[in-house]
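Case study 2.
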Amino acid sequence: MCVSMTGRRLTSLLAYVTTATAGASLLTGCGVLPGTTGGSREPVTVMTWAPDQTRATNMPGMPAMAQTYARWVNSQGGIDGHELRILTCNEHNTTTGAAACARRAVREKAVAVVGSYSQNGRAFMAPLEAAGIPYIGGYGISEDEFTSPLSYPVNGGQASLIAGHGMQLAASCRKVSLVRPDTLAGDKLPELLNSGLRKASHRSAIDIPAVEDAAEYTEPAVKAREKAGAEDGCVTAVLGERTQTFFDSFRRLPQQESDSGNGDGSGDGSGDGSGEKKDGVRISSVLGSVGQPVIDRTGGAHSPFEGAFVTGWYPEASDKSWAPMRKVIQEHAFADNRVDPADAGVQTTWIAYTVLKEVVETLDADKITATQIAFALDRGARIDTGGLTPTLRWKYEDLLGAPGFPRIVNHEVTFQMVRKGQLVAQRPGFVDVGETVLSAP
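Prediction:
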């Protein structure tokens, strides 16, 4: 039973419960969180989902980051006095899995789905829309994230990455081969890449569809190298978690007689913007298919990605703007190796929960509902992410309105490359690719 206490009795009780976990739990049950002065504000329940232990792309760091964020924010008294409760769900990279996660969010009265990953937008958005639950800061991999009126993306998704990557490659590549998943989502990638290439009056890329979850990619690797050519050719692969597998197959290809590159996987890593060369061919990809964790796992400075071009949504992982996130991870992840601060999924989840926190704080209400959150975002709540993105706002006039991606509000990307085993900026600051995305068919 919870009772109201004031004065010396409350001070004595608070002093006692801070020394015992049971006491802290007692106060939380009464609506009082560590760091608050009391009140009866109700908990805020949200869900974060992602695929895990599947044959395709896995994102276990996203729900793990959500749990880390909750531990941190609750240790500070919650969000505006509300305890943050996290539901997590494995959507298994399937339509049935995504729909099941969405139905569970509805059933357990989540007020938002935050910082999640799923390629199965149609499967999860319908249940969320029926229940009026906003989808905040999904990874940006499904088209529905950029069309649903209840979706609030924090980045420009694959559309911005791929269009921006075309712009990045146009300056250094005479011909480009694109290896991408043979899926509905993958079918959209060639024209997006070509829109960036055309920005510099470049020829279109050679489209090479490949099985998304193959164990090896020798055949598409051979085709990609041949089509790119040995004279300033570039091979870009956007296969999610299987990108590493593709480039492993690529580097194992026998040398060509016309070899003009080093062929040893070391790359030049010089300041001239050149990528790694194999038989004169540079390699490249985008954030999410290649990231610092992948580079570290595959040998760091001796990784097959040394010298590669990479287009990202956010500043490089070493940027000082990530310092608050790194501090939270260090203090509240408890050695959970799924929570890698250089992982794009972890970074996106941090930004998505930043949006949730700022919106809940603006509401200043004892009970938070899904309708309140969506209404506040639609009315133009402005979210400052500390330099990780432009200021985010989802009013009608902020939407890019690109065909197929009307709800993009953040259409800026970063150009990076791998030098000495680290993703670093190829050029400083953000690059606006809004017009390029708009020009894609």
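The longest strand covers residues 412-419.
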